[in-house]
Every structure is written in structure tokens, then in C-alpha cells.
Amino acid sequence: MQAPVDAGTLQLTSPDARYTERLGREIAQFIKPGDVLPLRGGFGGGKTTFAQGVGLGLGITRPIVSPSFGLVNSYQASGGSHLILHHLDLYRVSNSEEALAFGVEETLGADGVALVEWPHAIEDLLPVDRLEITFEYVDENLRELTFQATGARSARLLAEYSSRLELD
Amino acid sequence: MNVLAIETSCDETGAAVVQDGTRLLSNVVASQIELHRRYGGVVPEVASRQHILTILPVIEQALHDASLGWSEIGAVAVARGPGLVGALLVGVNAAKALAWSRGLPLIGVNHIEAHIYANWLEAGPAAEDPKFPLLCLIVSGGHTEIVVMRDHGVYERLGGTLDDAAGEAFDKAARILGLPYPGGPAIQEAARPSLGGGNIELPRAELRGTYNFSFSGLKTALLREVRATEHPDVASLAHAFQEAVVDILVRKTSAAAELTGAAQVVVAGGVAANERLRDKMRQSLGSRAQFPRISLCTDNAAMIAAAGYYALQRGKIATLDMDVDPNLDIAA
Question: Which CATH code is given to the segment(s) A11-166?
């Protein structure tokens, strides 16, 4: 596994699930085909809520449901963008060989944006340049989100996203 | 008419022969046979590879158990979705090859629809077919759907989960409580000492005015309870979790049964094996509530054969270019 380069970090505290969803909705304005966003952290951190926000932000009308069963759910964004949102949950996958067997490489890069929950099994397949997001359960309501860019593209994404959040 | 069916949508390799959509002649699931004896080693973990290794012996076993030869098979049915794409492909390609080489009609079956059809597989000589309109709750590791079935092949989806499937919620709760996989049976066992009692109450996502479910908040609430104490009371927490899931499933299903004037209500899928769900559903719906036998709740090919038989009656014969669809909808 290649250690991620720190090309910018943003730390946010979310007061509730609604805000976590909004954080997802806002980032949807800036993500582009090829972006990969690993969503790290255990249960109850808000990974799914954030992913649902991204779906809303992209104008996806189908509910963003858990991808655990099929490992990946793919959604076509509405409007002019031909972007496809791939939402992965690799908890049940034990190594990258298994992930390649179900076609994980087709969801990373190209015309899609990948949100990858439980990415531990495919660390070696993740692109060097990606936006790492870590979700931490603080208490009943509070969650801490850490965004870390690991290359030029993710650094730009993070910069655009931060300035958007600062406007509010 | 004997239908041979194949099921490979997730991690079970199944083959079965069913007569006239109701009479079970054989039902083989790969995890039940001693594969290592045939292969002299451990079967690979990868689901699709496991399917490739096991599919032919499983089909042969199904024919053998039914005491039938190929000349007595009238059609080949196969699950074409929803499920894991690589896994589905193994079953669909095997079914195509068999249908083509034996000159038999090929039938593509929706896996969720097939779970409902497990209720057509007679439980005894006196068993009657379910009556329409039939309200169906499909609850498994991958699906949570409320569907009204007005006739064979005629479905209207009333609602479903907005996040985790019910079976998945059990699996995740088991992980939180340090219980083994699969979570459903583990939680049921752990909850037993607290049945009828328990002093912990976990929240239900009501989502009023809809037939939708959400189990994500419940999972987080359970996590909060576990973190709140150094020695969590696993029995009470497992009980509280099971009660919350069962309660919302029963209430939404009962309300949907009223709305649709359902003649009967069937519960299908792996979670239909949960005893508490069976008890509570019967308390609420009385004799209208029906469940498949436990062995037909989890993924199996017999249900594919039953659904395939009725699809064939409606002339639903697939061509050899039939594709798998990992996101196949029940109303499609």
C-alpha cells in the first residue's frame, strides 16, 4: 500500500445527521468523473448518510441504499452530467483479488465517481490521488469528519469544497 | 411438468427440481454437500469461483435426488437478478448451456419474486396455494420489500428499505454485540433469555404515511447503548434490537394488508425464519399470515423452479441472449 501524500486536510464537526447529509450534498457540486472517495470509520459515523447526501446533490432520485449485499450499487446522475455514482461496501471482501473478480476496477476511475466504504481490502487498487474521508462517532449527535487530499486533483476538489463551506 | 432450476445470485449454489410449480422433488444447496470430499481441498472463498466449481455437481445431485433423467425435465429456470453480477453469470450461463443442448425452454426468474414463490411449495398434501391479492413481505440479507401480488406475475411495490436490509441490520447488530455471522440466528439465540421481558427500548423509524423502512438509526442507537456501559447486557440488547425490527416489520405489513384488502399475507426471505417475527406476525394477522418452511426461507433453487413454472405458464420464455441484471426490480 502506498502511503497517502498529505495535499490538504479539512476537519469538520457535524452536529447531526442532517448536517452530515448536507456535507454530502455540497461535495456533489464539485466531484468529477474519476474521483475516488474512500469513506472510512466504523458503524454510526455517518458514512451512509453522507453518501445519501451525495446522491441528493447529484439529483439521483432512487434512494441510496446500503450496497452491502451486492457490494456495489451504481446510480446514473440526472441532468446534463453523464456521471455515474458507484457506492461500494467491501466489508465482505477479503482481498483485492476477490474485488477484481467482481469487477471493482470498473468502478474506480473512468466515467464514475466511487464512494468506497470499508476499503481495507483494496488499498492497493485505490488511485494515488483520492479524497480520503474519515468518519468518527463522538457522541449521540456529534460526528467528526476528516477530509484528506492525497494528490493534485483531490487537493483542488477539497479547496473548492472548503471555500464553498466557508461561504455559509 | 418438471422444472429444473438454478440459483447462484449470492453465495449459495443451488439446483432443484419441482413438479408443476408446487411439488418439491429435490433441492440441493452447495453448502449442504461435502465439497471438499470431491475436490480434496478447500473451496475458494470467492463466490463466483465457488459457483463455477460446484454448479455441475449440484445440478447432477438435484437430478439424482429427484430420480429423474434429462428426458423427464420440461424446462430450465434460473435466477437472473438481483444479486452479485459474477455469481449470477455462472448460473445463467449454465442454464443457457443446458437449455440449448437439451432443447428446453429457458426461463429467467427474478430472485425476489422467487422468494415469494417459496410459499407455493406445498408444506403437506392438504396445503392450499396462497390467495390473491397476496401481500408479501420479503426480508433477507439483501432485500426488504413490501409488495402486493394481484395475480401470478402482477406486482405492485408499496415500499422498501431506505438504507439497510432487515437481514443486514441483524448482521450489523451481531457485529456490534460481538455475536457471530449470520446475525439473524445469533441474535435470536442471544435474545432468548430476555424474551417477554427486557428493560431496554430502542427507537423505531416510523416513516409515517409510507411503507418504507430505515434500520440505520436503530443500528446507531444500539451502538450507543453498547458504548454507554463497560459490560453491555448482550441478551437484553439483542432482545431490544429484535423487538424493534420485528415490531416495525409487523406493523407496516399489517397496515399494508389492510390497505390492499389482502386475502393472505406471506413472509419470505431469510429473516422469515425468525421465530419472533413469525409469532408476532401471526398475533397480528392470525391465519392470514403464512410462512415458507424454514429450509426454503434462505436462498435456494426450489423457489426459482416454482416461480419459473408459473412464468412458463404465462409464456415467459427467455432467449439465449438473456442477460443478468444485478439490480433487477420486482415490478420490472
Answer: 3.40.50.300
